[in-house]
Recover the amino acids of this structure.
């Protein structure tokens, strides 16, 4: 698979776009950090980043599972659109969401309504439990090697990136719907059946401290013409290594790998101040003839 980055158009700072591919850690190349200063850490894995380098140097003796670069499966049920107060008032007044122009490929711009997964406290706790198990698994599951207070501090650093605090990233006012509801609203706007919608791997957007894996929701002629070069989102069965999957029943999962920003390591030191965090974004394509994503009961959401 050939990976080509193009120059994006960020509101602030530097943006690079890899169209049609969700980049994973196994594909990462150090030279991709060159447009960003200071340099980022190449290793995106939460468990691996928690291990100091001096311990990794003795990995063959100490660590049972040195791979450790697993991705944590997180279900996606709700999507949220966060914004500032003025924009929220405008959204309520027009009963819907206008598209924002975004570069998606070389010389290609398109309008999308952007949404992010919203995770509840139960999901956060589940991710923490899973990641601390992965970290302990690197040492053969023997948590006795760690001070319990320090182990709890390690646990609580996951997942605290802005992927789990969307309002801090985009604004204090937000609208939340299930992904199923939004697909129904979108199909209605596009005059399609929900079954006619297509879900495409739009690409990876790279920033100084952020990696965004974008999923495009489209349908009809647009899916066949404008987005035909983009691969469909994988199913769990055929998407080994995929960042985002959707099964036959419409259930979504995000295979997260970097859910924290500054990392506390086993030696109690905060490191990787500029470590990138990753997140998923759903982009509902709005063609010129359908410039607004109308939704129901907007004031109650």
């Amino acid at each position: 698979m050939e990976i080509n980055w193009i120059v994006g158009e960020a509101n602030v700072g530097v943006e690079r776009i890899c169209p049609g591919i969700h980049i994973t850690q196994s594909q990462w190349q150090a030279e991709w950090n060159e447009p960003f200063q200071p340099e980022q850490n190449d290793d995106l894995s939460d468990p691996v980043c928690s291990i100091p380098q001096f311990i990794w140097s003795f990995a063959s003796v100490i660590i049972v599972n040195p791979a450790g670069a697993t991705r944590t499966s997180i279900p996606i049920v709700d999507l949220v659109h966060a914004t500032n107060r003025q924009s929220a008032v405008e959204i309520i007044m027009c009963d819907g969401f206008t598209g924002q122009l975004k570069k998606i490929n070389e010389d290609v711009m398109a309008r999308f309504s952007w949404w992010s997964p919203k995770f509840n406290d139960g999901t956060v706790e589940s991710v923490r439990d899973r990641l601390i198990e992965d970290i302990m698994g690197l040492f053969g599951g023997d948590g006795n090697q760690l001070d319990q207070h320090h182990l709890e501090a390690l646990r609580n650093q996951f997942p605290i990136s802005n992927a789990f605090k969307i309002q801090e990233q985009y604004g204090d006012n937000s609208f939340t719907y299930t992904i199923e509801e939004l697909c129904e609203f979108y199909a209605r706007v596009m005059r399609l059946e929900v079954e006619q919608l297509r879900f495409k791997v739009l690409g990876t957007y790279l920033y100084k401290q952020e990696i965004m894996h974008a999923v495009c929701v489209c349908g009809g002629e647009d899916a066949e013409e404008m987005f035909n070069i983009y691969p469909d989102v994988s199913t769990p069965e055929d998407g080994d290594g995929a960042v985002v999957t959707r099964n036959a029943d419409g259930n979504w999962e995000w295979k997260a790998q970097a859910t924290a920003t500054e990392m506390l390591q086993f030696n109690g030191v905060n490191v990787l101040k500029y470590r990138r965090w990753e997140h998923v974004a759903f982009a509902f394509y709005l063609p010129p003839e359908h410039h607004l994503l109308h939704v129901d009961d907007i004031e109650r959401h």
DSSP finds nine helices and 16 strands in the chain. Residues 188 and 194 are 8 Å apart (CA to CA). Residues 54-69 have pLDDT under 50 and may be disordered. The first helix runs from residue 46 to 49.
